[in-house]
From TrEMBL:
Substrate binds at W50, Y143, K276, G310, R396. Pyridoxal 5'-phosphate binds at G110, S111, D247, H311, S312. CDD domains: OAT_like. PANTHER family: ADENOSYLMETHIONINE-8-AMINO-7-OXONONANOATE AMINOTRANSFERASE. Belongs to the class-III pyridoxal-phosphate-dependent aminotransferase family. BioA subfamily. The gene is bioA. This is Adenosylmethionine-8-amino-7-oxononanoate aminotransferase.
């Protein structure tokens, strides 16, 4: 059953053209890898409900931790106060982060964690009396959120064209995204480095920081780049004393196969932005993690050098408790094995899919993420999404890209079935 037209008009849905949108589906419950509509029809959640439900839906351990915490402390303002769940969460994160990422600032979602990093990097230089360092570097196609700072550094993502006049200017670098069998990747990387060097030569003294999604750009179509390219970029900008912001809102918590993408790069950025999978999909929570030298630049004898930023629900104890439990689940051997299995299944099944469907191209995988482009998919976008849903799959293509980012509880036979269904649907569009 779908919600009535009258009910549909009550809510303004995100990323939706309300005039011609497909019928809104009412979901009444969810468990494991599935969500269920009002008739109890199951749908396999192959994008983890916008990449957040890493352990699947309704995980009992996380639910219990929230319930137990709610009986003790549901919330308290975080200016001048602290609490055990917030401290414990940061201590647990420290065990899997580079040692110099040791200062944690709480916020509510991925966009705000990016806003915090941008504001901190700008004020860091301001506190050091380097007012000229107020510009940012980013990559074409980068998506960092929908608040104004995040939109500005993601200005060439295509999502925010209507707001260009309100955004600040950013120096944007071509992004050398690649795929299996890409013979042009080195040329694309050389072009990007040339543009970066040009910017550094002309504007290095005025650049505050560079922001990037390490290894893979999410919303722009799961566009992957090579680790060595990121290493080269970071090494270059650091020669000019430019801060480095890693937006791992999507890539964190083993999405790329390691706890964070930075572990594959062996780089500790100056700022790390994390959210999405942080609480296992139960509650909104985000962190901007930085280094001691950044933190110490905000210490002073008056409020002028302090970081004047905060949110009503900063470090909400319920969300922190969910995050602590989610992190413990993530560290378990059985979860790590499941992540490896999903990765291996993607690598095998995506090649099989390409061999069975001539419209599939540019296949790529990274950890638990798999993506490929489909020729002319944009012409059939609405129909494709409908066909996927009719076959019991929640999939949201990005332009002409189909991607899979399932929860870690998905079964091997489910992955196998999904690829077969996708190929059949594409071949009949």
């Amino acid at each position: 059953m779908t919600l009535s037209i009258r009910d549909k008009k009550i809510i303004w849905h995100p990323f939706t053209q309300e005039k011609n949108a497909q019928k809104i589906v009412g979901i009444k419950k969810a468990q494991g890898s599935y969500v269920y509509d009002e008739n109890d029809v199951p749908y396999l959640d192959l994008i983890s409900s916008w990449w957040v439900n890493i352990h699947g839906h309704g995980h009992q351990e996380i639910a219990k931790s929230i319930y137990d915490q709610a009986k003790t402390l549901e919330h308290v303002l975080f200016a001048g106060f602290t609490h055990e769940p917030a401290v414990t969460l940061c201590q647990e994160l420290q065990t899997i982060l580079p040692k110099n990422l040791c200062r944690f600032f709480f916020s509510d979602n991925g966009s705000t964690s990016v806003e915090v990093a941008l504001k901190m990097s700008y004020q860091y230089w301001l506190n050091l009396r380097k007012k000229e360092k107020k510009f940012f570097l980013s990559f074409d196609g980068g998506y960092h959120g929908d608040t104004f700072g995040a939109m500005s550094v993601g200005a060439k993502s295509g999502f925010h064209n209507q707001f260009k006049a309100l955004c600040f200017n950013v120096l944007s670098i071509p992004y050398p995204y690649t795929w299996n069998g890409d013979e042009q990747v080195e040329l694309k990387e050389e072009k990007s480095i040339r543009v970066l060097k040009k910017y550094l030569h002309q504007y290095a003294n005025t650049i505050s920081a560079i922001i990037l999604e390490p290894l893979i750009q999410g919303a722009s179509g799961m566009r992957i780049c090579r680790p060595q390219f990121i290493k080269n970029v970071v090494n270059l900008v650091r020669q000019y004393h430019i801060l480095v912001i890693f937006d791992e809102v999507m890539t964190g918590f083993c999405r790329t196969g390691t706890y964070f993408a930075l572990h594959q790069l062996e780089i500790a950025p100056d700022f790390l932005c994390i959210s999405k999978g942080l609480t296992g999909g139960f509650l909104p929570l985000a962190l901007t993690v930085t280094q001691n030298r950044i933190y110490e630049a905000f210490l002073g004898d008056d409020f002028k050098t302090a970081f004047a930023h905060g949110h009503s629900y900063t470090a909400n104890p319920l969300a922190c408790s969910a995050a602590i439990t989610s992190l413990k689940l993530l560290k378990k051997p059985e979860c790590q094995e499941a992540i490896k299995t999903i990765s291996k299944m993607h690598q095998v099944k995506i090649i099989e899919a390409k061999s069975q469907c001539p419209r599939i191209e540019k296949i790529r995988t990274l950890g638990t993420i798999a993506a490929f482009d489909v020729k002319d998919l944009q012409r059939f976008m609405s129909l494709a999404k409908l066909r996927f849903f009719e076959q019991g799959m929640v999939i949201r293509p990005l332009k002409n890209t189909i991607y899979l980012m399932p929860p870690y509880c998905i079964l091997e036979e489910e992955i196998d079935s999904v690829y077969k269904k996708i190929v059949k649907i594409i071949n009949t569009l």
